[in-house]
Amino acid sequence: xxxxxxxxxxxxxxxxxxxxxxxxxxxxxxxxxxxxxxxxxxxxxxxxxxxxxxxxxxxxxxxxxxxxxxxxxxxxxxxxxxxxxxxxxxxxxxxxxxxxxxxxxxxxxxxxxxxxxxxxxxxxxxxxxxxxxxxxxxxxxxxxxxxxxxxxxxxxxxxxxxxxxxxxxxxxxxxxxxxxxxxxxx
Length: 186
Hints:
It holds the Pfam family NUDIX. By secondary structure, this protein is α+β, with helices and mostly antiparallel strands.
């Protein structure tokens, strides 16, 4: 089958919400093969970066924070949205987030993956990096005014226990930990 056999052509698009982080659109699409029309609710996001930061003693750096959408506190790898103009250099954005959220910089950076968080309704793309040879930044950039974070360093076994307990509950962090385990602890 070709792309045309799957493509949904946009008949109309209505902006439902235009926010600081996301835009929500309502599309009516023509289904392929003359199968009629269908509605699509879509979330557009500028993208994000995340970092699997590994310390010299083989621990992962996590941040603990409250997530309003979940109404709970969870552990996550350092991450953040791409600011306006940062799409051209997501690695620089990742290094900014690492410094802001942890006070650390990395001498070695490797891109792990790019992935969509929920392609059924969103175009959010996360760039995931691995940062090693970490160094403390003497005067780090401040955290965002609306963020309250605690930094933790945990072993692989501790990270897996946090996944099992539900304290790590987001896909980017689980994916990063899985990558870490498969690449270095196999």
